[in-house]
Amino acid sequence: TQLINQIAAGEVVERPASVVKELVENCFDAGASQIYVDIEQGGVKQIKIRDNGCGIDKDDLALALSRHATSKIASLDDLEHVVSMGFRGEALPSISSVARLTLISRTAAAECAWQVSADGSEKNFDPQPDPHPPGTTVDVRDLFYNTPARRKFLKAEKTEFGHIESLIQKLALSRFDVGFSLQHNQREVLHLKPAATQAEQEKRIAAICGSAFVDNAVKIDYAASGLHLHGWVGLPTFSRSQQDMQFFYVNGRLIKDRLVAHAVKQAYQDVLYHGRHPVFVLYLTLDPALVDVNAHPTKLEVRFREGRMVHDFLFQALHRGLAEQRP
Ligand code: ADP
Ligand code: MG
Description:
This is DNA mismatch repair protein MutL. The protein is of the alpha+beta class. It has helices spanning 2-12, 16-29, 61-64, 76-84, 91-97, 148-152, 157-174, 198-209, 211-216, 258-272, 307-324, and strands at residues 34-40, 46-51, 100-106, 113-119, 122-130, 135-141, 179-184, 187-192, 218-224, 227-233, 246-250, 253-254, 280-285, 291-293, 302-304. The strands form 3 sheets. An 8-stranded mixed sheet has the order 5-4-3-6-2-1-7-8, covered by helices on one side. A hairpin with a 6-residue loop joins strand 3 and strand 4. Helix 1 crosses helix 5 (91-97), helix 2 packs parallel to helix 7 (157-174) and helix 10 packs parallel to helix 11 (307-324). Residues 82-87 have low confidence and may be disordered.
């Protein structure tokens, strides 16, 4: 089991940012409206994530740290199947096989919170009372302490934290309704209140992409033939070089796609004569039947059923928006 967990962990846990991704997604699943992410030393020393979501019943805590599929993995074929499915439902057991994990949780109905922990092969699944408020904290320490080969592949603290920060930015732009706080080595790096109105959303975008972007951005809001695009695109008058400040969400999910990149670039070139490194935050919504999301949960790829149509729609939407605001 320990070995299977560690193999599984290789899929789910590549670096500190992959732990953060799994844990924050669990907070979303729990219906949290506030998520606190505390990082020490790039996440290698500690990743602590607290939410105000539904919490976990005392009786289910041990289960949350146990591998549900273990009993089903009888052969290498089974294992390969599980690997190719991306180990859904296996994040916490996988993480706890390569780090020291403490899970503390309290449901609204419970009188107090309860804590369990797992540390490599050592399990303390007998819940201990804890003064934690309603919601859940997952505390992950000493990542890869028992897999030195993996640990060696980690980059400098600054680089690993950079991955975490950019992940939180992406997640924060996908869920305006959730508040986020991000700390590194006890310093607050991001503090984002839940954002309902457009002004509040623009404040969040300013905190992430810079206020120069928001102040000069063109607002896009365009619908045609069942597709809807809305968001903000920067005019190239704003020249802070931020190649990774390109956020494109399809039905709420961040993607990187060549067809999308091409449509954006063409619209810029057509209106402004160049399309170098534009900054944008865009949300496309369309019938889910028109997109295939790659089965692997860590991939950012999609395939559009009607690629040409989506491309032309995006070009149209952006071209109009940009042309109206041509400086
Ligand atoms: P999955 O999310 O795919 O079910 P995980 O290993 O990520 O698998 O989590 C295991 C289980 O632990 C979840 O199904 C959920 O019941 C519980 N859980 C994990 N994190 C939280 C959280 N932040 N709030 C409430 N429940 C959680
Ligand atoms: Mg999960």
